[in-house]
Amino acid sequence: MARSQNSFIKKQKEKKRMKKKEEKQEKKEMRKEQSKGGSLDAMIAYVDDYGNILDSPPEEPKREKKKDKEENSEKKEN
Question: By the 8 A CB rule, do 47 and 54 touch?
Fold first, then answer.
């Protein structure tokens, strides 16, 4: 009699393990479907001069070429 109970318990444990494994697989597939994607561009963040976090790269300050040329020509004359 004890032998039949042991085999029954083993079968029940195996069923529980299989059910748990299937549920875990389903959850994994759901997370995969719902993920936004892990591309590198989505993960990059930029910091501006004031310490604010931005999604896009901050604009670099534009130098005026005319002023630079004038300063260089004045230095050469002196």
Answer: yes
